[in-house]
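Before the break, one more example. Copy the sequence into your notebook; we will annotate it together after we see the structure.
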Amino acid sequence: MMRTDVYTTPEAFERLAGEWNALLKRSASNTLFLTREWQQTWWRELGDGELRVLAMREDGALVGIAPLFFATNALGAVEVALVGCKEVSDYLDFIFARGCEPACFRVVVDFLKSSDAPAWQAISLCNLIETSPTLGVFVELLNAEGWRAQVVFEDVCPVIALPDTFDAYLAMLDGKERRELQRKLRRASGDVAVTFTTDAATLARDMDDFIALMKASSPNKAAFMTPRMTCFFHAIARAMFEAGWLQLAFLEVERVRAAAYMNFVYEGAVMVYNSGLRPEKYAYLSPGQVLIARLIQKAIQDGCREFDFLQGNEEYKYKFGGRNVKLYTLSARR
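Here is what the structure looks like once it is written out:
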């Protein structure tokens, strides 16, 4: 028989810490953005509204987590969303053990019908990957309640399936793109160095440098990096570093940091989270492209199977060989 505990405070993340990530690895939604470390940090730094974390157990074993919160949206309606939604968590979902999804979805629906849930008018579950069971079973259950569920295309994540060698990777590229990339790598070979943050004592300073490069990249990135978002980036970098998942890389020209990538390495995949560069300097070296190529090369050497550019259909992602993985938003109204 399934038992459900409903947590209403951030204590949930600590109470479930010993089991959370183990369940995630048994689920169909195993992504860094659903780890306990990410979810807890996101809620602490960016969370708003009323938290409800549902923990489902069968014979004492944790088989499901539904990390939800209830907040008023731009239209004035109280909306049910997943912790982490929206702009800084590229993949989200429920965390249900494989084979337990139908029963866990039923628990979520029954909770939303009950007086234990805050009064709500809408559901918006963002960043669901195209293979998610949520897009099937949960939609059917919502519609059976008369809650008018719909699934809408949201964005893409271009992903490279990595081969065994960098030469094999280059051979995957379009001929023109391959020759251009090889030319840029040769031109930069004697002038640049790629460095990584490996010391906890320098992490805060390195993140300051990264954020400065990010803000220098474009007006949009500068506007995005508000004081609150800056605090989040520092906090998430610290949490990911301590978990062993952060890859903070810099391309240095004459010991000056010209480009940077903040990536995560999780379960055999490198995820390209954000980047920065000085567009007015070292343009002749194409520092951003050289750095990303070197990081792809490192990912292959390290035995990673995927290089995930995360959300956005920027042209450069396809020039490097990215292939689209689609994301959807599931919405419903009472």
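The mean pLDDT is 96. The two ends are 29 Å apart (CA to CA). Try to locate both features in your own notes.
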